[in-house]
Amino acid sequence: MTNSSPDNQGKHSELAQELVRHQAPDSNRMLGGLLVRKQCWRFSPGAKLAGLVAACVTAFGVLRFIHPFLAITCPVPADVLIVEGWSPANTMRQAAAEFRLGGCHHLLLLRPILDDTDKYQSGRYNGDYMANLLVQYGVPQEEETTLYPMVAQKDRTYHSALAARQWLAGRGMNVKSLDVATLGPHARRSRLIYEKAFGDDVKIGIIALSNREYDPAHWWRTSEGVRETLGETIAYIYARVLFHPPSPVKSG
Count of alpha carbons within 13 Å of 248, Cβ hemisphere only? Predict the structure, then answer.
């Protein structure tokens, strides 16, 4: 009888186990290897709960703070107040009050119009109506001017700002600061666009006129509030990230 050493017995055992492993079917493969089972990571119930809480907090923050962020009011000491004339007629009373309280000496109403000889189709009639409302609410007629720039196919606020800049330069009004009054959540974007149009030499203040068609504190409850707030959010991101006009030429 041949005696085997413990080392030989261990080697035989390892060989036997290796042989069994090679002969055993692979439970992770099927159909000749066409289907392969792999391990993957999944979120635990605790992680899913944490994600849900984070999503709720984010949604609450957007609902609560996005409108105040967009509808910013930050005026500066200025001689000129620019009013964006596409705003609703019910905001003209507030614009006139801002003119009287702000110490401005001239109000410039900007009303973009279409290239049409009919004053109703072009929008000129609406601009005249807004100008009359401002006078009715206390703006001296001799201190008010209405400009009617043509409606641009894109970047309309920027082209309106350029029209205001050219008008001021044409009259030798070398302003160092001005205020812009516009509708609600359009305010932050308007300030950004006017800063791009006027350059670093002119300080731009902004006044958000209240929209009476919805409650700004609960804008998500009405279609008008949702359309205006979400639309301006997207437009502001575009103006901040993608809109890069040429640098304005210094006047004078």
Answer: 22
Closest CA to 191 of 100, 89, 72, 106: 72
Q: Can you give the residue range of the structural domain that contains 130?
A: 67-241
The one-letter code for the residue type at 115 is: D
Q: What is the pTM of this model?
A: 0.78
The residue ranges of the chain whose pLDDT is under 70 are 1-27, 247-252
Q: Each residue of 5-40: pLDDT tens digit? A: 656 665 666 665 665 555 555 567 777 777 887 778
DSSP 8-state class, residue 150: B
Tell me how many domains the chain contains: 1
Could you give the CA distance from residue 196 to residue 199 in angstroms, rounded to a whole number?
A: 5
- The enclosing domain of 158 has a CATH number of 3.40.50.620
Helical axes 187-198 vs 223-241, angle rounded to 10°: 30
Give the span between the Cα atoms of 214 and 220, in whole angstroms. Answer: 9
